[in-house]
Design the sequence.
């Protein structure tokens, strides 16, 4: 199905852009954020059928709003800051500058993963408020909406991303180890669509697995995880926070990993170190066959991390 082919690619593009924005924001580099306003203007018009225009092309840094559509009475702020303080400041300025008299709805689009605010509504009761559940979006929100669209529209969105960033997404200059993990997640998701099977345990217990089931290898497994986490851990956290992935997709990927890794472990006489090496080699070969430049150690780290989460070598029920 074309839908199943297009969606993971779109998700990968958006997650890489999110990672780049997050990295540049940390370094106080805002060019990519300004570039994102124009890009998201076109993207949102495709996804939602809006007629948005970029206010900052007409007036630099229009207070509280970046993209506007008077016909649909919606204004959107594109931001790389998801903090509650920023949200409150945006809504306050939106009201102060009387934008609520022109636009019925304000949406805050976070270029990185949005934060969950405890307050459901922010603003002034009786004048204007935003719903922090429905009016704050991030890349995951967009992907979830894209999955509901007709295939021709999804293809048009993918074409926009391909034109914008290139077939191999080279213009984003994402570090190889980051691309490796993103590509591996994408590959595992595609594998999961074909065969998930049934997981071994509904109650993961990594302590039981590593310290008891694999007690002869517990020391070396823990040491290796600590070594790899020092290098790749922060990257994986950032990728998982910025990668728009639905709960069903995560579950399918987990079930696939559980079933497949358990088969590899069985064929390795229940030796986790040998099985991990085989899995690492397998996914290195798979990425290589797809023409993806990879970091072998990043693949090993991802698999070891999934081992601690009981998605690799799941516990017996």
Sequence:
């Amino acid at each position: 199905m074309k839908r199943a082919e297009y969606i993971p690619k779109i998700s990968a593009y958006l997650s890489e852009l999110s990672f780049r924005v997050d990295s540049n924001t940390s370094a106080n580099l805002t060019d990519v954020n300004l570039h994102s306003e124009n890009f998201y203007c076109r993207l949102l018009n495709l996804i939602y059928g809006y007629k948005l225009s970029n206010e900052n092309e007409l007036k630099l840094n229009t207070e509280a709003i970046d993209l506007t559509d008077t016909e649909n009475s919606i204004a959107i702020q594109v931001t790389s800051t998801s903090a509650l303080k920023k949200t409150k400041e945006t809504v306050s300025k939106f009201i102060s500058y009387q934008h609520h008299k022109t636009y019925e709805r304000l949406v805050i689009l976070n270029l990185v993963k949005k934060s969950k605010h405890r307050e459901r509504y922010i603003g002034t009761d009786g004048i204007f408020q935003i719903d922090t559940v429905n009016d704050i979006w991030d890349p995951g929100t967009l992907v979830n909406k894209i999955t509901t669209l007709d295939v021709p529209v999804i293809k048009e969105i993918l074409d926009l991303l391909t034109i914008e960033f290139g077939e191999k997404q080279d213009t984003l200059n994402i570090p190889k180890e980051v691309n490796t993990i993103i590509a591996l997640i994408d590959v595992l998701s595609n594998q999961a669509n074909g065969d998930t099977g049934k997981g071994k345990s509904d109650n993961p217990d990594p302590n039981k697995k590593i310290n008891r089931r694999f007690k002869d290898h517990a020391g070396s497994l823990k040491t290796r995880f600590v070594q790899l986490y020092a290098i790749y851990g922060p990257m994986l956290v950032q990728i998982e926070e910025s990668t728009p992935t639905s709960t069903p997709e995560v579950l399918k990927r987990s079930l696939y990993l559980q079933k497949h890794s358990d088969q590899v472990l069985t064929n390795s006489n229940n030796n986790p170190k040998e099985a991990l090496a085989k899995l690492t080699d397998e996914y290195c070969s798979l990425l290589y066959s797809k023409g993806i430049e990879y970091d072998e150690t990043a693949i090993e780290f991802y698999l070891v991390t999934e081992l601690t989460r009981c998605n690799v070598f799941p516990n017996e029920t």
The longest strand covers residues 74-79. The radius of gyration is 22 Å. Residues 2-160 form one domain. DSSP finds twelve helices and seven strands in the chain.
